[in-house]
Write the structure tokens for this entry.
Amino acid sequence: MKKKGFIFDLDGVIVDTAKYHYLAWKKLANELGFEFTLEQNELFKGVSRKRCLEILLEIGNISASQEQFDQWMIEKNEDYLNYIEKMDASEILPDVPRVLQFLKNREVPIALGSASKNATPILEKVGLLPYFNSIVDGNSVTKAKPDPEVFLIAASNLNTEPQNCVVFEDAVAGIQAANIAQMTSIGIGEPSTLHEADYNFKDFTKMTDEFLNDLLQ
Ligand code: BG6
Ligand code: MG
């Protein structure tokens, strides 16, 4: 058996925080006088905070000074932090602990591969931090998904080769990053949106132990 590495995205895979990112961006858009739809929010998944604001301003056709831009970044994050402040284990997505425990029982190394700069406090709040051998997040990368940097750093931290890694992702950009890194990509969410993934699951509840065992071979 090859030495495997399993890499989890955070937002929308482990916890349902995509909705809080959406609400915080929507509030800012509304303050600036335009709408921000759930469909447009798909483009924000897996994308850095800075790039999200750039896209939001493009949608609203708004230009901003650097100072104003930085101020809106802070405002969005403060709103987001207000949402996540009250998070607890009840916001872990279905069957995530089962899959993490399955891997831990088999001593498979696990990494986080997220664009978020808020990843560690969120994992602490929901009590899942001890499962992770490595945290690679928005504070550790210079290039955003679909660049594979975040997953390549995770593979290296887990002391394994990219080809031996499995990535769980809910973002199109994240699936593309995993594919570019030659990792096995598993889409968590809408299969029609994530059709570039090697495998698709609506959520972890349908992911059997047999499937996970096959991934370990
Ligand atoms: C990703 C989310 O995980 O993290 C994006 O899918 C978000 O929507 C990005 O913009 C950055 O998150 P944060 O917490 O650093 O603003
Ligand atoms: Mg995500």
